[in-house]
Amino acid sequence: MAIAGDGQVTYGDTVMKADTNKIRWMLEKKVLVGFAGSTADAFALLERFEAKAKDYPGNITRAATELARDWRTDRILRRLEALMIVLNDEHTLLLTGQGDVVQPTDGIVGIGSGGQYAVSAARALVKHTDLSASEIARESLRIASEIDVYTNSNIIVEELPCRK
Predict the structure, then answer these.
(1) Exposed (0-12), middle (13-18) or buried (19+): which is 50, by Cβ within 10 Å?
(2) What is the chain's Cα-based Rg?
(3) Poorest-confidence range of 10-14, 110-114, 144-148, 156-160?
(4) Given this model, what pLDDT does residue 12 score?
(5) What range does the domain containing 93 cover?
(6) CB count, 10 Å around CB of 38?
(7) What is the domain-level CATH number for residue 43?
(8) Residue 101 forms beta bridges with which residues?
(9) How large is the average pLDDT for residues 149-156?
(10) In which band, very low, low, confident or very high, does the pLDDT at 164 lie, cut at 50, 70 and 90?
């Protein structure tokens, strides 16, 4: 399993930073989390997710569901504008502020302005190449960076061995 993040942070139509790391390891490198959206909001959600993951050890699906419930129902949290991808050795999850916790059928998910371009590229690469998960993540995000002006090619990839 692999997750890739570009380095671009924008404010409106201005690039504020080009080398941000949007991927974080959690729980002694057993869980990877990627984020998109407002950086401050994403960090607030990352902290809350880590707390939930500690409350439900070994069950990131439950931790994600609890965070999504709080995110949707809490008066302050529901104003946070970010998206998260959470991976462990058996699950890939997408979390949204609308209370969604989605496990994609094919394990491919993207967030942020270039996310759907990257998903399209990744699906094509999975079908028509023998590239590794890490190579597919990097190349699909590179392709997205050529299409989406809010995505850059300063790409960080982290890999996690899966159970399957």
Answers:
(1) middle
(2) 15
(3) 10-14
(4) 87
(5) 2-104+153-159
(6) 15
(7) 3.60.20.10
(8) 95
(9) 96
(10) low
Measured from the Cβ of residue 153, the count of other Cβ atoms closer than 10 Å reads 15
**Calpha distance 141→130 (Å, rounded):** 17
DSSP characters for 66-111?
HHHHHHHHSTTGGG--EEEEEE-SS-EEEE-TTS-EE--TTS----
- Overall size of the chain counted in residues: 164
pLDDT tens per residue, range 22-43: 999 999 999 999 999 888 888 8
Both structure tokens of 162: 């899966």
Specify the 3-state DSSP secondary structure of 5.
Answer: strand
Cite the DSSP H helix spans in the chain.
39-55, 60-73, 115-128, 133-147
- 19: tokens are 């080398």
- Taking CA atoms, 58 is separated from 17, 144, 159, in Å, by 35, 33, 19
Give the per-residue pLDDT at 73: 85
How far from chain centre, in Å, is Cα 60?
14
C-beta atoms surrounding 63 within 10 Å: 27
> Which amino acid, one-letter code, is at 93?
L
* DSSP type of residue 90: S
The two tokens of residue 6 are 């570009």
Phi, psi of 39 (to 5 degrees): -60, -45
